[in-house]
Structure formats: C-alpha cells, structure tokens
Design a protein that fits this description.
Elements: H1 5-17, H2 28-35, H3 39-51, E1 55-58, E2 64-67, H4 76-84, H5 113-131, H6 134-138, H7 144-160
Antiparallel strand pairs: 1-2
Helix pairs in contact: 1-3, 1-4, 2-3
Amino acid sequence: MKLGDGVEQAIHCMLMLSGLQPDGAMPAAALAEYHGVSTSYLLKHLQALAGAGLLTSVPGPRGGYRLGRPADKITLLDVVLALEGAGPAFHCSEIRQRGPDPLPQKFFAKPCGVSAAMLKAERAYRDELRRVSIAELAYNPDTELGNAIEGRSCAFRERHERRPATS
C-alpha cells in the first residue's frame, strides 16, 4: 500500500495546528513554508481535511486553518480517510475467473484466499491507525528530538499564528 505524499503533509500540518491557541489559525502559506512544500498542493489537502470536519477554515485577513475538533479526537485513520477516501486499498478483480477453462460460478460465491487475506490486513492497518491520535503524536518531552521539534514549531507558531483582533 502506498499513501500519497499529502497524507504525510496533512498529518504534520495537523500536528502544527494542534499547538495553536483555541482562537488561533494559521494560513496555508505558512504551513507550506514550514514544511517546505507547495502551497497550492497543500491547500487541496487542507480543504479535504476541512471538508471532513478535521479542520476549520477561518476566513478573513486573520484567518487560516485550525483543528476542527480536539487533537485527541482526531486519529491518523481520520486523516488518511479524508485524503485517500474510505474505499479499501485492495480491489479484487476476480482474476481467478479469467483465462481458459474457468471453474463453474459456484466456486466464486465466497472471496478467494488472496482477497480475504488482503482485506484482513487492511482491517488491521486501519485498526492501528484508529488507535493513534494527533494529540499522542504532538509532542514528546521525553526525547531530545521531541524537544527540538517543539522548540522549532513553537517559534514558528509565535511568528505565524493569527488571532482575532482585540478591541
């Protein structure tokens, strides 16, 4: 199974956005800059995440994106499904029914072993993605790498986070 590059980008954007203030937002251009990716390519993924309710799009000059629900309520599976779709990765085309001298139709009432094994593997894969939330990945203070990433992210958020104007 190969997931598109957008899945990695989306997960990292979700991690960045999980550190915003509740009323904060970050523009797509800033997220693209931080991750070194194309704004136009990233934007279509952010829009898909917003369409799935994982992000909220905040309009206006102080707008951008923020999480659509708490980080502990967004799983990696939610992100993958928003970007890649809900259909299974494996599609059985019943190749066993092709070619010369096919077996009678009665032998094809149940899925073949290949299809059953692939679907079982996909269920396990999805179950594992369902167990991991954005909140769990957001920051690990127990590692030097986690602290370095958080320091870099925090400084960037401070420069680029947009908040409503106060009167």
